[in-house]
Amino acid sequence: MQHFLIGNLKWSSLPHEWFTIAGTLTFVMLALVVIVVITYTKRWKWLWKEWLTSVDPKKIGIMYFIAGGAMLLRGGLDALMIWLQQSLSSGSSHGYLSSDHFQQIFTAHGNIMVFFVAMAFVFGLINYIVPLQIGARDLASPFMNTLGFWMFIGGIVMVNMFFVFGGQYAATGWLAVQPLAAKQFSPGTGVDYWVWSLMISGIGTTLGAINFIMTILKMRAPGMKLKMMPLFTWGSLCSMVMAVTIFPLLTATLFLVYFDRALGTHFFTTLGGGDPMMYTNLIWMWGHPEVYVLILPAFGVFSEVVSTFSRKPIASYTSAVWGMIGVSSLALSVWLHHFFTMGASADVDAFFGLMTMIIAVPTSVLVFNWIATMYKGKIRFETPMLWFMGFVSVFAIGGISGVMLAVPPADFQLHNSLFLVAHFHSTVIGGVLFGIFCAISYWFPKFTGIRLNQRIGKYAFWCWIVGFCMSFIPMYILGFLGASRRLDHYDSSTGWQPFFIMMLIGGLIIALGVALQLAQILASFIQKNRVSNDPWDGRTLEWAAASPPQFYNFTTIPEVTSRDAYLTMKQQGLPKPTYEDIHMPKSTSVGVYIAGFATLASFGFVWDIMWLVVISMIGILIVFVRRGYDEHSEYVLTAAEIQKLEEARAKKEKELPPVTDNETIEDMGIIELIRVVLSFFLDAIRNKRWRKA
Amino acid sequence: MSETHKTDSEHGTVQSYVVGFILSLIFTLIPYYLVVHQTFSSSALLPIIIGFAVIQMIIQITFFLHIGRGPKPNWNLFFFASTVGIILVVVGGSIVIINNLHYNMQPSDQTKKLIADEGIYQIGGQLTGACREQAANHQVIINNSRVIPVRVLANQCDTLTFISGDGSARKVVFGTYPQNQSYAGESNLVIRKGQNQTITLSQTGAYRFYDQSHPAVSGEFVVGQ
Amino acid sequence: MTEHEIEAHEAEADERTMFGFWVYLMTDLLMFAVLFAVYAVLHNNTSGGETGRELFKLPLALTETIILLTSSFTCGIAMIAARQRKKAQTLVWFGITFLLGLTFLTLELNEFASLIREGYTLQSNAFMSSFFVLVGTHGLHITLGLLWMAITLGYVIKRGLNGPLVRKLALVSLFWHFLDIVWIFIFTIVYLRAFL
After folding, report:
1. Are the beta carbons of B42 and C62 separated by less than 8 Å?
2. Domain coordinates of chain C in residue numbers?
3. What is the pLDDT of residues B70-120, one digit of tens each?
4. Do B94 and B160 reside in the same domain of the chain?
5. What CATH code is assigned to C3-43+60-194?
6. How far does the CA of residue B147 sit from the closest CA of chain C (Å)?
7. B142 and B93 within one domain
8. Nearest to residue A534, comparing CAs of A462, A449, A617, A601?
9. Which of A316, A437, A443, A438 is nearest to A375 (CA)?
10. B12 touches chain C (CB under 8 A)
11. In 3-state terms, what secondary structure has residue A174?
């Protein structure tokens, strides 16, 4: 009876170790802070109506950024713990983490960074910017958009749930190799949490990818042919086509892993005819194209930024597009390079090694394109360009080390060494993360209508670059010296400890950089220097909308006749706004409910609480059917209402301070920021300002 | 606004469904009868029935789903074609790679010995041939001048114990001097002073052995099924 | 908005939805691809147990195939009636499709039940695991398709055959045709192949 009610949950599943207690307390405290603030400011209804049930891709984009940012801090904390352990754990010292705990940390670090940080920011960007760039008002399916977002949040809940129930995460590496991740060798609920958090967020990703493809292919402004689309939209399209292709592979493989664990099937077991090598084969069929899914939007961002800040169109649009398409197509033919050493024969290894090296070609086409764009351009070195320069240097190192690894004989020496770890961090941090930072510094004025503090931003950038080099260049060297990855302890005779300590210091500098980025955002909001809709003299359509855009993006969808559509509009004279009736989607709570049920169901799957699974599935079905057959999910915004909104906005603008687009602003420095924040708190305490409602 | 009303051919007429149905029926029954009556060899039949399946898929895609008609660019067709391509990569790639891995990762002599020692009777669904239960035990005594008995006849999975006649340390090498062989993963056996060495006769065949210090002292054991 | 504008807007949304659903079907197809790949690699791993030749009954598989094919055909006829807004005909033909689908499902469940009764479960060996999961996933899709069909037909009875419901039926029939196409490959690669 007890098993029927609560499955495998026991008293010992609750937190009773230092890190589970600390984690649970952190969540509880964060939740309390949020609840208190929202209750005090009486904003529950506002939060629910305006944000949580919103189908506006701009709002969903911001929510993705917030979630991704929070998970960046969590994943970064994992990284610091790894750096610290590896610096301490030499010779007779064994650091402060047990081996099993260390393994859970690097597993969680990998999963969180790839799925819940990188994917989150990429989806947030595409959500916000692509409809604006193609002249659409919303995505093709607002319902799928909110559903996809909340499924992603469900994944975040599951990946953190183990702190409260279970106490352990997977200790198998971020892709849970078999047969280590089988029930026999990983008996707890750790791997089950791994399976279900990835399953739920993977389904959300698939839905989102379908949505983006539908939008880009079917909802472009009239006249915008494919060959006129901005390059960020092209990067997003290629990325999402890849995503829609590979995430089903992941979902199916995760189901097979779950069946092996829960139902006793023999897909990847060592006995009964199972084949663990097939798991490695399948998971990397997903895993390799995944990294290209992440990088292609970043390539798109860089294309936009380089072009705008060099005041030149991209050197060769056609080759840039074919470069992106080339990367996408080749991405699906290289996956074996992740397991060269698993025993395939030389010809198979050679084929995949060749294909891996060939992928460097379309990538270089893009890089040379950007450099050629800068050549003889009127370059402005604003913060986005700084991040681009950081990308070129760091990503180039990562890319070249990748080509080295693509040579199978070299890989036999370097496989699973720290050289490999340095390679993929160089490409992911240098490519994806710097791309995200570049995008945020580029489009922040569009999101918020205010300037991003450049001064603190530059400090943050340099902390990142210096910290990154201090942390990952020694890693390349250690890889050559024979250090393998995922080491929680090593012999002092290896002489590696100084390197690890240097890497820790580099990591702390990176942490400082992250803190400075948060400070940058805070300072920007304090300074509130307003910008117009077009602070950078942009070329693409998103700059035509207001900053921040109206919820319907544009009053009139523009007619497009060329690439760099907004630049053409500015040159030919901006059209007068006309007003017409438009269909807008209503917000809906369906996404929250379905994802909520899905999360409950996966909790039931993890702990074998079958009644919870059944009820949640029925709940999903009911909500889905009611929404699916709801024929009133849109409303009409009449031309008159739009005109009123626009006029109200214009009136409000006149009352606000003027925009500072072309002025050189004395940005707040770090010392001044600290002073402002401290005085705010001291003032509030002294004057007891919280007494007023 | 572009013309989005589909023509009749895009939605399908009763005629197209009837034609598609009959063709599909034919392309189902033919491979069925080919297999039941074993008209061709197995290796020839496999591509034939897969070919029929692919053609039937195309029939249904055309007559039931009407993909391929409609205004260009035909995104439905594009996504279908690329999905088919990726399926070929996923399925075909898996088959090729896994076969290649299995071929290259077959147990060697050394692995066979480990398998026998550790009692691993089954790997990947296949029985390894490791001996599960030992049957009879045979003995061979090695002196400085000769081996007693000169020839041992045994069955597979019996055990054979090498004893040093005077209790001194000896090294037994398989094969004939100077060409050595290995047996069940061992190239030679060290008999320590005052001890014996026993091996499990997991490999069938006739094998010679000799004392390394006295190559003329040699014997033979024959392992039958 | 004018009548014409609303109609054009709906037609555009209709086309978009069909396309989006088609892309979704492609993702479903890729999930099946993984299951087919796993079956192809593991189907000989019987751990000394029985192979497909000994466990499958080819006439039963043929019967299931023909039933599903016929239901795909009747589904197509039903859609033609739906687009012509002929409510009674639509209900009849979809009803026949539903019954044929239900028959298929019953036959398949019977096959599974008899295998399990004889002791061949998905825990027996890798071959059985991949068989049950591949064919079972298809069966699960059939079940969901039948449920979806029933719910939509229920709404048709309640609300009449309006534009949005015709769209829904188009999606259901697309799903149903797709499942028949997947079954062609299950019939060939699982059942026929076992007897080569």
Report:
1. no
2. 3-43+60-194
3. 676 788 899 999 999 999 999 999 999 999 998 888 767 667 777 777 777
4. no
5. 1.20.120.80
6. 42
7. no
8. A449
9. A316
10. yes
11. coil
